[in-house]
């Protein structure tokens, strides 16, 4: 009987994201030495705080999850930039399950060595993903992301201008689609000044 409870407990932890520790409105400027209890990884990766910003150079699609449940309509903003590379490949995941990479929408700036920017659904290589080519991404610049999700529409503003949008007739939301993460493959990527708040038109 004890073994059964242990197995059930392990299954629960594997299938569910950790409970939320913060709520909207939320802000993180990463001005500290360690990630802290509001962030988590389910596999080992090189996410760290470096020079007052979130940093990863080799996460290989192991997301850094925030212990926050996104509201259905939301505004997410942050700064992002790359160093020591000649491409951007800066990305985040929204309305995901808090456990698995590409379990929600994946927003990528200058992916595939600056060839493609995309808003993809459940798969970075989704056949019907929304794309922008050329990406017009300057890998040496600091970029400000503003992402608005209202009902089934995602609007992505880059440096103050509308960059891309996507309408989903079956929008992802609910217990299995309400988490946010920063993500990275092998870019020397930095993220800072994260703001998450409810969108109220």
The value of Rg in angstroms is: 17 Å
Question: What is the strand tally?
Answer: 15
Q: In CATH, what is the class?
A: Mainly Beta
Per CATH, the superfamily is Exo-inulinase, domain 1
The end-to-end span amounts to 53 Å
Class by SSE composition: mainly beta
Largest pleated sheet: 8 strands, antiparallel
What string, H for helix and E for strand, traces the elements in order? HEEEEEEEEHEEEEEEE
> Quick check: average pLDDT?
92
Q: Provide the CATH architecture.
A: Sandwich
CATH topology: Jelly Rolls
- The stretches of 5 or more residues where confidence is low (pLDDT under 50) are 1-14
Number of domains: 1
What does the model show?
- The strands form 2 sheets. Strands 1, 3, 4, 6, 11, 12, 13 and 15 form an 8-stranded antiparallel β-sheet that branches. Strands 2-5-14-7-8-9-10 form a 7-stranded antiparallel β-sheet.
- It has helices at residues 2-15, 111-114, and strands at 26-28, 39-40, 48-50, 53-56, 64-66, 74-82, 90-96, 105-110, 116-121, 130-132, 143-150, 153-158, 161-167, 179-183, 189-198.
- The model is unreliable at 1-14 (pLDDT under 50).
- The radius of gyration is 17 Å and the shape is globular.
- The chain has 201 residues and is mostly beta strands.
- Strand 3 (48-50) and strand 4 (53-56) form a beta hairpin.
- The chain has one domain (23-198): Jelly Rolls.
């Amino acid at each position: 009987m004890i073994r059964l409870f242990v197995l059930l407990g392990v299954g629960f932890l594997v299938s569910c994201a950790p409970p939320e520790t913060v709520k909207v409105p939320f802000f993180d400027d990463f001005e500290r030495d360690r990630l802290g209890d509001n962030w988590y990884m389910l596999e080992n990766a090189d996410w760290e705080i470096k020079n007052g910003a979130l940093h990863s150079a080799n996460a290989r699609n192991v997301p850094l999850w925030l212990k926050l449940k996104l509201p259905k309509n939301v505004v997410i903003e942050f700064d992002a930039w790359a160093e020591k590379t000649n491409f951007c490949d800066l990305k985040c995941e929204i309305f995901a399950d808090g456990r698995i990479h590409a379990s929600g929408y994946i927003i990528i700036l200058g992916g595939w060595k600056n060839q493609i920017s995309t808003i993809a659904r459940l798969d970075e290589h989704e056949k019907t993903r929304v794309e922008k080519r050329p990406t017009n991404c300057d890998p040496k610049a600091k970029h400000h992301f503003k992402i608005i999700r209202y009902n089934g529409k995602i609007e992505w503003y880059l440096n103050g201008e509308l960059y891309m949008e996507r309408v989903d007739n079956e929008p992802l939301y609910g217990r299995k689609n309400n988490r946010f993460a920063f993500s990275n493959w092998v870019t020397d990527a930095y993220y800072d000044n994260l703001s998450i708040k409810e969108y109220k038109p």
